[in-house]
From TrEMBL, chain A:
GO MF annotations in UniProt: RNA binding; structural constituent of ribosome
Annotated protein name in UniProt: 60S ribosomal protein L7
UniProt KW keywords: Ribonucleoprotein, Ribosomal protein
Family matches, as InterPro entries: Ribo_uL30_ferredoxin-like_sf, Ribosomal_uL30, Ribosomal_uL30_euk, Ribosomal_uL30_euk_arc, Ribosomal_uL30_ferredoxin-like, Ribosomal_uL30_N_euk
UniProtKB/TrEMBL annotation, chain B:
Family statement drawn from the similarity comment of this UniProt entry: Belongs to the universal ribosomal protein uL4 family.
UniProt cross-references to Pfam families, sorted A to Z: Ribos_L4_asso_C, Ribosomal_L4
Identification of the protein by name: Component of cytosolic 80S ribosome and 60S large subunit
InterPro entries, per database record: Ribos_uL4_C_dom (IPR025755), Ribosomal_uL4 (IPR002136), Ribosomal_uL4_dom_sf (IPR023574), Ribosomal_uL4_euk/arc_CS (IPR013000), Ribosomal_uL4_euk/arch (IPR045240)
Listed GO MF terms: structural constituent of ribosome
A GO cellular component annotation in the UniProt record: ribosome
Lineage of origin: Eukaryota, Rhodophyta, Florideophyceae, Rhodymeniophycidae, Gigartinales
């Protein structure tokens, strides 16, 4: 920080009332520097000093945040592996006993709108708007509960949805993740190019990096709602290889694309991401 | 509580005989009033309409015929036509604005609103602004007056001028004041008017010269009135149309001493109201210290304002972390380790694969 300098004897101000007084010439013989210039200089130096301190502190904070992100990603990787293995081990154990192991139902679905905006009946239009699917090929994560399941049933002809796996969630958020940054009435769609964006928006929920966000979405954590709402609806490409040969608009079970396709959504996501 | 005259700036009074300084008087407070040239323009355009004379076409012009339309079916347009026969006029169209000898479109009427009412307060404010502008040499010059040789603005001559009787004396006075340049300017700009005004008693146009303001006419009007461009005005009834001709503030005004001394009682000072105009106090400036830069850089303000907020801009061009490892490692530092693990796995996997293939070849060979 720039130390406050010992103020030298101030040169007289150039106010007209001082015209009678003899001008004080600086020791070097050069004309005196105007007081306003000195004041401005002092103020600028002070601000620059404060900025320097803030910049150094910010750098330190970034280094800490990077370390923290590393640690968290490590624990999550172990957690995912462990979760996978428990399911596999439980299945094997129950098969040995001649029983069946039913894993937990999915908690999160990924919903993609496959139908355009024309000729939409009003209630279905409203539901799609509530799901934030305002455009064709838009995708959102949705928490699965009684309410949302019924909502999705209602708009089945217009969407396709299923249960994404970790790879899908990761790739969607990394490749097509944009955050909703700003305030109400002034939102911006900001690409997730830096963990600071996530930290500023979701830091209060202890979500500070991409891996935290992925974890919150994939495992449907406590703050799924906030994390999910922070994510702008994904704008996906048309699927490589096209929709179903038969007809996009009939139900998946009938050979089309609409409706719940459970785990097979992951293939579609790979083709659309 | 009026401030002592010594505290107010002082205006030198020049002698009417010699044009040399002969005394001084304090500056009236009117000259420090705010200069609202926008208001002056508004009031001027309205006031200028008040000496108009109505014009209109005759009420019956073009309508004094008994023409009637022939209707359809006669291979002519449906305009009313003059009846009768035996003359060119019969069968000709009448009444319409497109017809020869017909009435014009929207005949001008005398009941057009010729005059404008201007609120008294606005008129007074405008006059006060115009007076304040006349005290600033920059504005007077900007208006176009030749006052390079004038010793002081406002220009005040002593009371003996009010008793002047001869125009020749008036000319020598103006010359000694350096004000005759402005009169000469007027003479030079005397030109024939373009347009019909020529034939309507407005044959020549010329600029406006100095305005001489007096308190009592003892002959001064007769002395000055024949000089080209010079206007005269009593201080009791100052006219905006003369103080700001064309709506432009900054007329070159020559005051007599008594006239300028009367201004304080007519318009009041900032503290006291006017003794003559009812309920009138000089308007106040919105900002009293016009050195805005100095205000901004003053300690009082600089000590409480915050520094400029740095605008944070995030990277707008998204780089794909699934393909760009630098961006991936920035977002997920652990990805470095994960990539290494994957590499190791692929190496062992490919090693296994090639080993298996070699065994198969061997098996076939055997």
């Amino acid at each position: 920080a720039a130390a406050a300098p010992q103020t030298p004897p101030r040169p007289p101000s150039s106010h007209p009332s001082n015209a009678a007084r003899p001008a004080m010439v600086a020791k070097s013989g050069a004309p005196p520097v105007p007081e306003s210039v000195l004041k401005k200089r002092r103020a600028t130096e002070k601000v620059a000093g404060e900025r320097l301190i803030a910049a150094k502190a910010a750098q330190k904070a970034r280094r800490e945040a990077k370390k923290e992100a590393f640690k968290r990603a490590e624990t999550y990787a172990a957690e995912y592996r462990a979760a996978e293995r428990t399911v596999i081990d439980a299945k094997r154990a129950s098969r040995k006993d001649g029983k069946f192991y039913v894993p937990d139902g999915a908690k999160v679905a990924f919903v993609i709108r496959i139908r355009g905006i024309n000729a939409m009946p009003p209630k279905e239009k409203k539901i799609l708007r509530l799901l934030r699917l305002r455009q064709i090929q838009n995708g959102v994560f949705v928490k699965l509960n009684y309410a949302t399941i019924r909502m999705m049933q209602r708009v089945e002809p217009y969407i396709t949805y299923g249960y994404p796996n970790l790879k899908s969630v990761k790739e969607l958020i990394y490749k097509r993740g944009f955050g909703k940054v700003g305030t109400r009435g002034a939102w911006s769609r900001i690409p997730l190019s830096d963990n600071r964006i996530i930290e500023e928006a979701l830091g209060k929920y202890n979500i500070i990096c991409m891996e935290d966000l992925v974890h919150e979405i994939f495992t449907c954590g406590e703050h799924f709602k906030e994390a999910n709402n922070f994510l702008w609806p994904f704008q996906l490409s048309s699927p490589k290889g096209g929709y179903s040969k038969k007809s996009k608009l009939i139900h998946f079970t009938e050979g089309g694309d609409a409706g719940n396709r459970e785990d097979l959504i992951n293939r579609l996501i790979q083709r659309m991401n | 509580m009026s401030s002592p005259a010594a505290a107010r700036p002082v205006v030198t009074v020049l002698s009417a005989e010699t044009g040399q300084p002969s005394g001084s008087t304090s500056m009236p407070a009117v000259f420090t009033a705010p200069i609202r040239n926008d208001l002056v323009q508004i009031v001027h355009t309205s006031m200028r309409k008040n000496h108009r004379q109505p014009y209109a076409v005759s009420r019956m012009a073009g309508m004094q015929s008994s023409a009637e339309s022939w209707g359809t079916g006669r291979a002519v347009s449906r305009i009313p036509r003059v009846p009768g026969g035996g003359t060119h006029r019969s069968g000709q169209g009448a009444f319409g604005n497109m017809c020869r000898g017909g009435r014009m479109f929207a005949p001008t009427r005398i009941w057009r609103k010729w005059h404008r009412k201007v609120p008294r307060k606005q008129k007074r404010y405008a006059v006060v602004s115009a007076l304040a502008a006349s005290a600033l040499p920059a504005l007077v010059m900007a208006r176009g007056h030749e006052i390079d040789d004038v010793p002081e603005v406002p220009l005040v001559i002593d009371g003996t001028a009010e008793g002047m009787k001869k125009t020749a004396k008036a000319v020598t006075l103006l010359k000694s004041l350096g004000a005759y340049d402005d009169v000469e300017r007027v003479m030079e700009t005397r030109k024939m008017r373009a347009g019909k005004g020529k034939l309507r008693n407005r044959r020549f146009k010329q600029r406006r010269g100095p305005l001489v303001v007096y308190e009592k006419d003892d002959g001064i009007v007769k002395a000055f009135r024949n000089l080209p461009g010079v206007d005269l005005c009593s201080v009791d009834c100052l006219n905006l149309l003369q103080l700001a001709p064309g709506g432009h503030v900054g007329r070159f005004v020559i005051w007599t001493e008594k006239a300028i001394q009367k201004l304080d009682s007519i318009y009041g000072t900032g503290e006291t109201g006017s003794s003559i105009k009812k309920n009138f106090v000089l308007p106040k400036n919105i900002i009293s210290n016009s050195d805005v830069a100095r205000i901004i850089n003053s300690d009082e303000i600089q000590s409480v304002i915050r520094p400029i907020a740095e605008k944070k801009t995030w990277v707008q061009r998204k780089k794909n972390p699934l393909r760009n490892t630098e961006v991936l490692f920035k977002l997920n530092p652990y990805a470095r380790i994960q990539k290494k693990e994957v590499q190791k796995k692929t190496i062992t996997a490919s090693a296994d694969k090639s080993a298996g293939k070699a065994f198969y070849e061997q098996m076939i060979a055997n």
